[in-house]
């Protein structure tokens, strides 16, 4: 029996995936998460074989959640689930360590195939991800056109996302279980590194870089 966790901030998506997976006796959904932070916590606790991970989620996006999961629990495979075929998101998820990438408009048709593929140690990309995107991922030289986002640490990316989603410094400190002073230090470092001086500018930057979205 292979175990799975579904991470998506839309309950209707989670319910749909569970309904699709449930007839397969060799697969079991053991937990669900509505945000990336909860997904990481559940993976640490349950050590599933596969996580189906939405790319865009509140509190902690799927890219950074995947990076944490793959770093801490490398035996767990992550399949990205997204409405975006933009190469930024595909590239970021695969760099974070995802073993597959599915688009939401075809996930219900392909999800079982993708799960079986990554469980066999192979990578699965949705057929609608164009060859141009795949070629770009394969041939792109290391460091070429490196995103400004890459200058930020993992913790700084977490703080940036939470700031962009409208959380106060005190709320972020509580969420991340650190002091307000630590968050203020992270915020200053973020602003210095990317040369932005207001929360509005930080929010625009976070949306442009795919850390969050206006509809999260």
Report the top-level CATH class of the largest domain: Alpha Beta
The CATH architecture of the largest domain comes to 3-Layer(aba) Sandwich
| Total E-strand runs | 6
Beta-strand residue percentage: 5-15%
Helix content, binned percent: 40-55%
Output the helix-strand order: EHEHEHEHEHEHHHHH
Distance between the termini: 34 Å
Q: Structural class, from helix and strand content?
A: alpha/beta
Please mark out the parts with pLDDT under 50 across 5 or more consecutive residues, or reply none: 141-145
| Average of pLDDT | 86
CATH homologous superfamily designation of the largest domain: Response regulator
Look up the CATH topology of the largest domain: Rossmann fold
Largest sheet: 6 strands, parallel
Widest beta sheet: strand line-up: 2-1-3-4-5-6
Using only C-alpha atoms, the radius of gyration works out to: 17 Å
Q: Shape from CA axes? A: globular
Structural domain tally: 2
> Given the structure, what is the number of helices?
10
Short description, anyone?
The chain is 50% helix and 14% strand. The chain is α/β, with parallel strands linked by helices. Helix 5 links the parallel strand 5 and strand 6.
Explain this structure to me?
This protein has 216 residues and is α/β, with parallel strands linked by helices. It has two domains: 2-139, Response regulator (Rossmann fold, 3-Layer(aba) Sandwich); 148-208, Winged helix-like DNA-binding domain superfamily/Winged helix DNA-binding domain (Arc Repressor Mutant, subunit A). Helices cover 50% and strands 14% of the residues. The chain contains ten helices and six strands. It has helices at residues 11-21, 36-46, 62-72, 87-96, 107-119, 131-139, 154-164, 169-176, 180-194, 199-208; strands at residues 2-7, 27-33, 50-54, 77-82, 100-103, 124-125. Helix 3 runs parallel beside helix 4 (87-96), helix 7 packs across helix 9 and helix 7 crosses helix 10. It is globular.
């Amino acid at each position: 029996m292979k175990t799975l966790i579904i991470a998506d901030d839309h309950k209707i998506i989670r319910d749909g995936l569970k309904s699709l997976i449930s007839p397969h006796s060799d697969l079991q959904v053991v937990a669900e998460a509505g945000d990336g932070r909860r997904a990481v916590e559940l993976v640490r606790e349950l050590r599933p074989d596969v996580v189906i991970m939405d790319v865009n989620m509140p509190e902690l996006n799927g890219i950074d959640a995947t990076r944490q999961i793959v770093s801490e629990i490398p035996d767990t495979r992550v399949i990205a689930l997204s409405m975006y075929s933009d190469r930024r998101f595909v590239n970021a998820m695969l760099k974070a360590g995802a073993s597959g990438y599915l688009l939401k408009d075809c996930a219900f048709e392909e999800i079982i195939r993708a799960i079986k593929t990554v469980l066999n140690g192979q990578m699965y990309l949705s057929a609608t991800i164009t060859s141009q995107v795949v070629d770009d991922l394969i041939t792109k030289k290391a460091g070429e056109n490196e995103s400004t986002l890459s200058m930020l640490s993992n913790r700084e990316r977490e703080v940036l996302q939470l700031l962009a989603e409208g959380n106060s410094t005190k709320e972020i400190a509580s969420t991340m279980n650190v002091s307000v002073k630590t968050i203020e230090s992270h915020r200053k470092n973020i602003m210095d590194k990317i040369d932005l001086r207001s929360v509005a500018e930080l929010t625009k930057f976070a949306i442009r870089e795919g850390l969050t979205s206006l509809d999260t």
